[in-house]
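Retry 2 of 3 after timeout on previous attempt. Resubmitting structure tokens to design endpoint.
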């Protein structure tokens, strides 16, 4: 009887020790799983956040183009008797700008190009991780691809038309064969891209 009781107690001790060892392994496994899952969630959340930021920036660029269009159509700042040709508005975009900026200006000189002496209306600064990497022009309504990087462009609007004029940033020459302009934005960390589409008809969208 004593032997059986002692044997039983020994068995219980073995089970207890075995159970304790298994619990430790279980904790280690659980900790590892939690660490992996937390890392995955952080990575996915970070990627999602960056995607949202890029999308919002693309929409803000599109809104800036729309604002320029509104200024041009209304001849913002003009008085009765003023020559409306002196109140065209443009948005100047430069993919090679190291400052990550673009701006809206009034064509004060009426020469359809940007000059430092033109009246600056608004200046926009892109977030550090987002850049305009390409500005493309296409002759087709359906072609919204932008395979080349760099470039600069002025998109100009004049009263009373909503139509966009695509012009050379330096000379002011009109790109008469251009139907669509594509402003390509990129998140430099993730490589994600969004495009702001501006058509000659004045249609503006984000893709």
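Retry 2 succeeded. Sequence:
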């Amino acid at each position: 009887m004593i032997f059986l009781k002692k044997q039983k107690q020994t068995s219980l001790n073995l089970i207890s020790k075995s159970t304790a060892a298994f619990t430790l392994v279980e904790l280690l496994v659980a900790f590892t799983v939690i660490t992996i899952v937390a890392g995955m969630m952080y990575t996915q959340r970070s990627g999602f956040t960056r995607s949202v930021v890029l999308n919002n920036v693309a929409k803000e660029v599109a809104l800036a183009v729309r604002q320029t269009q509104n200024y041009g159509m209304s001849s913002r700042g003009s008085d009765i008797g003023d020559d409306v040709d002196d109140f065209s508005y443009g948005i100047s975009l430069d993919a090679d700008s190291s400052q990550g900026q673009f701006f809206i200006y009034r064509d004060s000189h009426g020469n359809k190009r940007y000059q430092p002496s033109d009246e600056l209306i608004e200046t926009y600064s892109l977030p550090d991780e987002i850049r305009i990497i390409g500005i493309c022009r296409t002759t087709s309504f359906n072609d919204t691809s932008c395979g080349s990087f760099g470039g600069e462009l002025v998109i100009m609007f004049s009263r009373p038309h909503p139509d966009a004029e695509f012009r050379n940033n330096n000379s002011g020459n009109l790109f008469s064969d251009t139907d669509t302009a594509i402003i390509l934005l990129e998140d430099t960390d993730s490589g994600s891209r969004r495009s702001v589409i501006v058509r000659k008809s004045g249609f503006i969208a984000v893709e």
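Attempt log closed. The chain has one domain: 44-206.
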